[in-house]
Design a protein that fits this description.
Layout: E1 4-15, E2 18-29, E3 33-38, H1 44-52, E4 59-64, E5 70-73, H2 85-91, H3 95-108, H4 115-124, H5 130-140, H6 155-167, E6 173-177, H7 185-197, E7 201-205, H8 209-215, E8 218-223, E9 226-230, H9 234-268, H10 275-291, E10 314-323, E11 326-335, E12 341-346, H11 352-359, E13 367-372, E14 378-381, H12 394-399, E15 404-408, E16 411-414, H13 415-420, H14 426-429, H15 438-450, E17 456-460, H16 468-479, E18 484-488, H17 492-498, E19 501-507, E20 510-514, H18 518-539, H19 543-546, H20 560-589, H21 594-625
Parallel strand pairs: 3-7, 3-8, 5-6, 6-7, 12-18, 12-19, 14-17, 17-18
Antiparallel strand pairs: 1-2, 1-4, 8-9, 10-11, 10-13, 15-16, 19-20
């Protein structure tokens, strides 16, 4: 039986009148891999900060296993200016760095007090190897300039330094708050594989659903101040959560029906009541608590219509852009089509955001021309654009842009009504901006972008900090959006759902157009790598070739059964791909019942897993055949 790592009992946390969670309890055992899910503002990051000791609690107890080594990656790590990359790995105090500092103080003190015991502890903690381990992990994360100052790092580079800082100590219990934010796709997949192989207990907050599904085997959800636990991956959670919500709604509806009857009895009965009547009165107040709960239907509603867009969108003709020796665009030409949905991927620093800013006219090209259509109305969601006056109220942020929002077809909404579409209740609308969580700020920013009825949306990392419910609605909105979309994102699931083709930035001005979504691009890359490995094998001289005695029989051939298996795999892959396409169309049709929707949603991840296995087996056989 796995040893307990952490036990949380009756934990309560509130900020003023806002209660995040009320007397929640849960435990984690050795080897548990848990994803933490909740709507923005429900206290996900706060819970991690409480467990790490960075935030206090109102009530409750936390019990950690003795001598537990804990690692915590914050959502937005901060380091003092002036530190080098390597120094940053020693900055955030942990058991090993504190020991190294204690050892250095000992050596600087006359007589070297406690020298022998410090030597033993340094050996036990493997502290002598700490710097070397730091450099090794930094290199794996593609950070090789250890003397570079942290203030000169990009958001993605800083996140990787913080990640290295967290992983160096090889924690027994690891907490990650949005670990994939600012990481490019290659680094996300590296971290995914690292966590899958590591022997650790994991508690993680992430919006990346592929990452969640492949790393975690259990989901904890905070909803309406309560905690719910699901023994399964993200796909299983979706199914069981819907069952819980449906059952809760039935319970509330039944309570409402009974409540109306009991309310009539309460009004008719005299004040002086017997024992039975008092018992019924107490039961009435308990029933009232259930009946007053709202039926769960809180969801962002994106009904904003795009303004008309003509046939001419934009034409890029021989664009060039460089920053010193760093080449971003090199003789780039492209004609954007009407209703096109383009995804942009590539390593950090290859120029994705620069390309977007150049398109929007925020920076000029070095040479070449960019011709934008007259009907194009841009809506730009950027990382830098999230800037609000902290002392303004939410409603005033929107009213400063417009008191009334035109939705098209003669429909109009007031600023307050528009905010309610984005899950800002009338009470929340009168909160100050500084009280909003990171995800709520993102949602407010998205609200201000869509207010102008754009017909060309440019979204630079729109998924960071948004909760999964909001992401699902945003995905569906973009799929049916009657305009053009460019998305720069490292969220693989989001890209698969939204875009119809990719611009792949390989660096040094090398930009390739791929006709498909991210998963299709990844499969193509795997297949190409397999072909390249096969070519390398063929190019290497064998022992028989060196001796001049090459025999055809020396080369491995497919057996009869293997050849039959390969032919069968081709048929099965084609059948599974067709089934996947059909299910995806049905899920987007809006015509399925709840039971059918649940069944199809459950089948889809199974299909993806079967496709991956059969495709990889086909590639193995094709390498032999090649």
């Amino acid at each position: 039986m796995a040893q307990p790592v952490l036990q949380v009992e009756n934990l309560t946390k509130s900020f003023g009148d806002l209660v995040l969670f009320d007397r929640i309890s849960f435990g984690l055992a050795e080897g548990d891999r848990v994803g933490l899910i909740a709507k923005n503002g429900s206290g996900k990051s706060t819970l991690l900060h409480i467990l790490s000791g960075k935030e206090g609690r109102d009530e409750g107890t936390l019990t950690f296993r003795r001598d537990l080594r804990v690692g915590f990656l914050e959502q937005d790590p901060i380091y003092p200016a002036g530190l080098t990359v390597l120094e940053a790995c020693f900055h955030h105090g942990n058991r090993v760095t504190e020991l190294i500092r204690e050892y250095e103080q000992c050596m600087a003190t006359e007589g070297h007090p406690h020298f022998e015991s410090l030597l033993e502890r340094m050996d036990a903690e493997k502290a002598w190897e700490y710097e070397q381990k730091a450099k090794q992990i930094l290199s794996q994360l593609h950070i090789d300039d250890f003397d570079r100052k942290v203030e000169h790092l990009s958001g993605g580079q800083l996140k990787r330094v913080a990640l290295a800082n967290t992983l160096i100590t090889e924690p027994d219990f690891l907490m990650l708050d949005e670990p994939t934010n600012h990481l490019d796709l290659e680094m996300t997949e590296w971290l995914e594989e690292y966590l899958r192989q590591a022997k650790i207990t994991l508690l993680m907050v992430t919006h990346d659903r592929y990452f969640l599904d492949r790393v975690c085997s259990e989901i904890i959800e905070i909803d309406n101040q309560s905690l719910y636990r699901y023994k399964g991956n993200y796909s299983y959670y979706l199914e069981k959560r819907q069952e819980r919500v449906d059952a809760k709604n039935v319970e509330i509806e039944r309570a409402n029906n009974l409540y109306r009857t009991e309310l009539e009895w309460m009004r008719r009965m005299p004040q002086a009541r017997g024992h039975k009547a008092r018992y019924r009165e107490e039961a009435f107040y308990e029933l009232q608590k259930v009946a007053k709960q709202r039926i769960y239907d809180a969801q962002v509603k994106l009904d904003v219509k795009a303004s008309y867009i003509g046939n001419k969108i934009f034409e890029a003709d021989h664009l060039c852009k460089s920053f010193g020796n760093l080449k971003i665009l090199d003789d780039f030409s492209y004609i954007f089509a009407r209703y096109e949905k383009m995804g942009i991927i590539g390593h950090n620093g290859t120029g994705k955001s620069t390309f977007v800013k150049l398109l929007l006219g925020l920076i000029p090209p070095d040479s070449g021309t960019l011709d934008i259509g007259e009907t194009v109305r841009f809506g730009y969601y950027s990382q830098e654009g999230l800037q609000f006056d902290e002392q303004m109220k939410v409603i005033d942020v929107v009213r400063r842009i417009a008191e009334v929002i035109e939705l098209g077809n003669g429909k109009r909404l007031t600023a307050s009504q528009f905010l309610q579409h984005f899950l800002f209740s009338p009470e929340t609308q009168h909160n100050y901006v500084y009280k909003l969580s990171g995800g709520e700020r993102r949602r407010l920013y998205l609200c201000t972008v869509l207010m102008g009825n754009p017909n060309f949306l440019v979204l630079d990392e729109p998924t960071n900090d948004l909760d999964i419910v909001t992401l699902q609605v945003l995905e569906e909105y973009l799929r049916t959006f009657k305009g053009c979309v460019i998305v720069v994102s490292h969220d693989r699931y989001f890209m698969d759902k939204v875009v119809d083709h990719l611009l792949v930035f390989n660096g040094h001005g090398d930009i390739r157009d791929f006709p498909g979504n991210y998963t299709q691009y990844r499969d193509w890359k795997l297949e190409r790598k397999a072909m390249e490995r096969e070519k390398e094998k063929q190019a290497q001289p064998t022992d028989t070739a060196k001796s001049g005695k090459v025999r055809l029989n020396d080369r491995r051939r497919l057996s009869f059964n293997e050849r039959r298996e390969m032919e069968q795999l081709e048929k099965e892959v084609a059948r599974l791909e067709e089934e996947k396409r059909t299910i995806e169309e049905q899920l987007c049709s809006g015509t399925l019942s709840v039971d059918e929707l649940t069944e199809k949603s459950k089948r889809l991840p199974q299909l993806n897993e079967e496709l991956d296995k059969k495709t990889m087996r086909w590639l193995e056989l094709s390498e032999i055949e090649g």
